Amino acid sequence: MYQAVKGTQDILPADRAYWRYVTEQMHAVSALFGLQQIDTPIFEETSLFVRGVGEGTDIVDKEMYSFQDKGGDDLTLRPEFTAGVMRAFIEHGMHVLPRPVKLYSIGPIFRHEAPQAGRYRQFHQFNVEMLGEMDPAVDLDVMSVAWMLLTRLGYRGLNFQLNSTGCRKCRPGYRAALVDYFKAYEDRLGDVDRRRLAINPLRLLDSKEPAVQPLLDAAPHSADHLCDECATHLAGLRGYLAALGMPYTINFRLVRGLDYYTKTVFEVWAEGIGSQSAVCGGGRYDGLVEELGGPPTPGIGFAMGIERVIASLKQQGITPPALAEPRVQVSPLGEAARLPAIRLVNDLRAAEIGALLAFGGRSLKSQLKSADKAGVAYTVILGDTELANGVAVVRDMASSQQETVAADGIVDWLRARVIRNT
RNA sequence: GUGGCCAUAGCUCAAUAGGCAGAGCAUCUGGUUGUGGCCCAGAAGGUUGCGGGUUCAAGCCCCACUGGCCACCCCA
Questions:
Q1: Is the omega angle on the peptide bond into residue A13 within 30 degrees of 0, that is, cis?
Q2: Which residues contact A36 (CB under 8 A, 6 or more apart)?
Q3: Three-state SS for A298?
Q4: Among A141, A233, A334, A338, which residue's beta carbon has the most beta carbons within 10 A?
Q5: pTM here?
Q6: Tens digits of per-residue pLDDT, A25-47?
Q7: Residue range A10-28: mean pLDDT, rounded
Q8: Strand B: which nucleotides have any atom within 7 A of a protein Cβ?
Q9: In chain A, what percentage of residues exceed pLDDT 90?
Q10: For residue A208, which nucleotide's C1' is closest to its Cα?
């Protein structure tokens, strides 16, 4: 039997209310911030991601779905949004737009990882980018999008993890300080951590090795090695966060897996959804647009994992509003009533009243049973007797009261009640 | 990619120590003329994830594969 490819999943109707709820809130909150929606292709030239995300990152080195198409082009299913959005920003000359340029996207992302709860090979992200402005108030604006969205979805006790990883000027110094510090303890490091020390020492801060933990406490903090510009930027952002009362924890061990981040990095964690607790992560990437061939343009953004958000909503017992369902069923009795019933259902839908036809010519008992299961408010019963008299019987399913209504007035009769009910 | 645990009806789970594969929920039908929910009866639903092996006999033991979960790793 066929089954969904490893790490992919079907989003079934039973989950649709969550998806609708979450994505509607994403659009609504984006509108409040003046974010405009942009949809870029699901695949791009492979080299765009290699340059954008960075060689040596896990994403580029081992997680990309890359392939050659029939024309021999090297393409990759997007493993993140930012590189593609930056490509579009540059390609369409969006740097001439009033700044900051505020963009958001919603769609699938692909990474070849070992699947686990909350971690999939195809998953969905809500992505926000603000381009062209250095002001730390933009950092605040971006973080506020995540904050307001999660708050509106029902999260309580939110807390940002915040750090600054410096910039091109000050990061090399910090990196050197880290290497110096850990070199002294190299014999205590495991293979993995020793490799990190050589390749990407910042990642050592993220180590879970028990033997390394005591070392981490005394390791140099990035915050102590920031240049004046980066330090001022971070101080400015912290002032704004405090002013808005948005709680955050300075987490000097917070590093992100993409090379392009500068200065501000942040994450939001949700508890109780397994080990994949980062529900949202992002940061500033002031050199990226230039790196990809555009004009020097600072930027900051974040991505939020929709599957993880939904998992944590469920875990917290937050239920989304129900989706709209048909409020009326039309039940014909006997062959003669079928055509009038089909016409009535059609008229009801044309009048914006959701309506179901009872199929199959079953007994009235069986038809009422199905109406009950469908959860409709009214069932219109149309049999020989009613046809002969030019009427229909309308049954209120909640009260079991029935009323005889003139056939040509049924749509109006129902419109008056169903709208009140919904 | 590495290691551990797991896989029985659509769902949640049973099946004594290898010995005829079951229940609840869900689905469909019926409980007397054209009236739902509760209740009762019945039906349908399975190559026990896939493929091998051991055995008189395998859901149960062994091997490989696939998938899920957990940890590592990484991140959303």
A1: no
A2: A30, A102, A103, A104
A3: coil
A4: A233
A5: 0.91
A6: 999 999 999 999 999 999 999 99
A7: 94
A8: 1-3, 27-31, 34-37, 49-50, 66-76
A9: 65
A10: B72
